[in-house]
Write a structure and sequence with these properties.
Blueprint lengths: L17 H13 L3 E7 L10 E2 L11 H13 L4 E8 L6 E9 L7 E8 L3 E8 L13
Antiparallel strand pairs: 1-2, 1-3, 3-4, 5-6
């Protein structure tokens, strides 16, 4: 059984093709949302601080610039998760309106659940990413 990380919009669908990514980026651009590309080798659901690939892209009209940057990020970090975020600044603050994974490592080791009994027989669960058993930068190297 293989693991598949499910975070963000479209997470339960098969991986998007570049053409499908371009359509989603165009959707965001049509609404005036700023695009950001991020990457990580620690995909824990609570890890919201992924590394940024360059600066956020404001005032774009054509998704090809975003696809170009996605490809450059894929080349630089082939064994990382890469996601696209679209920020809606119309509310006076940055709010993520759309976010989806555009690249993932070939092998996704997954998570294991740590179960802990605490006072009054309460049960607490914690997720631990198998990837973080290795040092940063070596987590998805075959």
């Amino acid at each position: 059984m293989s693991f598949r990380l499910t975070q963000g919009t479209f997470s339960y669908l098969p991986d998007l093709t570049d053409e499908e990514i371009a359509k989603q980026v165009q959707y965001a651009l049509d609404r005036g949302w700023a695009i950001n590309i991020e990457f990580t080798d620690d995909p824990h659901p609570r890890n919201v601080y992924w590394d940024m690939w360059g600066l956020p892209m404001f005032d774009l009209q054509d998704p090809s610039a975003v696809l170009y940057e996605i490809q450059k990020c894929r080349e630089a970090y082939p064994n990382h998760y890469i996601r696209v975020s679209a920020y809606d600044r119309s509310y006076g603050r940055q709010t993520i309106a759309l976010q989806f994974i555009v690249h993932r490592p070939k092998h996704e080791p997954g998570f294991h659940v740590i179960r802990q009994e605490v006072r009054d027989r309460q049960i607490r669960y914690t997720l631990h990413s198998y990837a973080t058993d290795r040092p940063k930068g070596e987590r998805y190297v075959d």
